[in-house]
Automatic annotation (TrEMBL):
Database matches in InterPro entries: SAM-dependent_MTases_sf
Name this protein carries in UniProt: Methyltransferase type 11 domain-containing protein
Domain of life of the source: Bacteria
Amino acid sequence: MLRLVDPQSRPNMTVLNERLRDIDLISLNIKANGYRLARLLAETLPPATHDGPQDIQPGSKLCTQEDIASDWSRYWSSELKLPVVFHRKLWEYTYLLQALHASGNIAPGRVGLGFGCGLEPIASYLASREVKATITDLPPEHQRVAGWASSNEYVETLEKAHVADLVDREQFIRMVSHRHVDMNAIPDDLSGFDFCWSVCALEHLGSIQQGLDFIEASLRTLLPGGTAVHTTEFNINPEGPTIDNWMTVLFQRKHIEGLVQKLESQGHTVAPLDFSAGSQPMDQFIDIPPWNDDLLGPVMGQLDMRRNANHLKLSVDGFVVTCFAITITKGGG
């Protein structure tokens, strides 16, 4: 009933098909215009006014266009040798490095712990700055269930995590170690770190409560006064339902506020909360599925839409989602 033509190659004139046949084209238009907007905004950014790191402490906040266009974020993009693009993954990296810089953790002799690191470039960059890091990923028997291997969010060996453009292999091997860790059961021997981090990993732990429990448990790996920085998927609608008890869960404002209240009652300090979703053009573009080349088959390729598919917000199971980052200082320092 949904084919564009009948067996004789005539237009399919059923009522249902007439209503639905242009949905893919509507999706294509939305995506094409959003991606073009992202490219144009990045290409027309004015020159940065600062060429070094800035002493700015980012709050616990949502990803916004303003952040990515800022001098502090653009500095860390250049340090990672990544182009400035309006994509939430880049924001997660630059937010993380800014938070670590502001807390004095990007310095020789510091020691960090990363959770669910996969192929991210953070450990390689830290190694280039003489910062030691232990990077972790799910045990092999767990990662296929979570679906991380198929999405390049999982790395089996230390060698695969090395980014040669950021640090030579010898220094990387000297500064970075790798082990398998279940984020729902952090081993007691992982302790004494100056900082820890995770980038969009804790939403894959099985439930919202398990994600919140992980953030709290991650503080046990730190020295007093240590810094934890975590990013996750966030449903920007503070009311109504959200996704829970699933492979990818979506946190809401109430979950973060409840966590902060609990952490502060334990003597920890959380960077001020800011739930502003932004009001600039890329803040208002909500990307929609699919995320691969399935939309209209080869048409996306013919229209040169397979590259630079950048967004800050997207639809996940019908919810408007972006990234949220939280910075916590462990009490007792």
